[in-house]
Amino acid sequence: MQCKALRDSAREIQSFDVAYFMASVDTLEDNTAFAAEHEAGFPILADPTKEMAGDYDVLMEVGFANRWTYYIDKDGMILKIDKETNPATAGRDLTQTMDELGFPKI
Is the model's pTM score more than 0.70? Predict the structure, then answer.
């Protein structure tokens, strides 16, 4: 659902001067198949070792990652962490928050 919401909001998201992606603790092969199945027009990073998930403190005890959204500026500063990401409205919420945070538009 989150992938679809981002896919469906691609035009609005891409009006900002940003790079965006999803990350998953699944394998590259699983993520590639998932991206193709859902026609994702953005990268889905694979973190099967769960190292990145651990670094970003999103790993749950059961081994899955929380669906948090990190807003990081061009200098690498984390401006906001949305720990209440709604998969169904993720694309719309992403563009609204980037606008509120003053992310530059193209």
Answer: yes
In a domain, 88, yes or no: yes
Q: Which residues sit opposite 46 in a β-bridge?
A: 24
40 located within any domain: yes
* SS percent in the chain: helix, strand, coil, step 5: 40, 20, 45
Q: Is residue 9 included in any domain, yes or no?
A: yes
User: Could you report the per-residue pLDDT of 43-65, keeping only the tens digit for each?
Assistant: 999 999 999 999 999 999 888 89
Say if strands 22-24 and 44-46 run parallel, antiparallel, or are unpaired.
parallel
What gap in Å lies between CA 99 and CA 30, rounded to an integer? Answer: 32
Instruction: Tell me whether residue 90 is in a domain.
Output: yes
> What is residue 72's DSSP assignment?
E
Distance CA 100, CA 82 (A): 13
